[in-house]
Amino acid sequence: MKRSFGLLLAILILLSLPLAAQQTGTLKAKIDPGRAGVFLDGKYLGPAANFRVARTYTVPAGDHELKLEEPRYEGIAKKITIQPGKRTVVSEKMKALPTPKGPFGHLRTENTDKFAAVYVNNKFYGHVDEFSNASQALLLPPGEYEVRIEPTAGGSPVTQKVKLEAEKTVIVK
Description:
By secondary structure, the protein is mainly beta. The protein contains one helix and 14 strands. A four-stranded antiparallel β-sheet has the order 3-2-5-6, with no helix packed on it. A hairpin with a 2-residue loop joins strand 9 (about 115-120) and strand 10. The protein is elongated and about 55 Å long. About 20% of the residues are buried.
């Protein structure tokens, strides 16, 4: 009896696999600039450059909201429809904003997840690897900020209040 139940369960699982595949599709994004953050239904998927390397994301079929954010460019928000069993390709070129003028404080970030999202005062600014070494930093006007680092693969977010001073560096880990 146990053997026949196990066999029946295995058959049911195998039969459901094609049905599950038909309820999802894949998303591929070709975005300029590549450091833009890709968000689907409010969830950060990673920097757009990750999509250039034959990477696609499996997404439930149906309508979704896609957002592209990069602090030096105008954001893009659009509705997309993922067809079951098909690949949806989104191509966008973001429009640059005027270059801000200094003086600036320097914010560096460190985290084991190099693609973890970096938020400053609840606004997306990039991912950890963009601001992670002595020759890289996020330049912001002097002032007080709340910095949040959210790992892409789970894990606990890090939130820290910082005070930036002109030409000085603060590191958030």
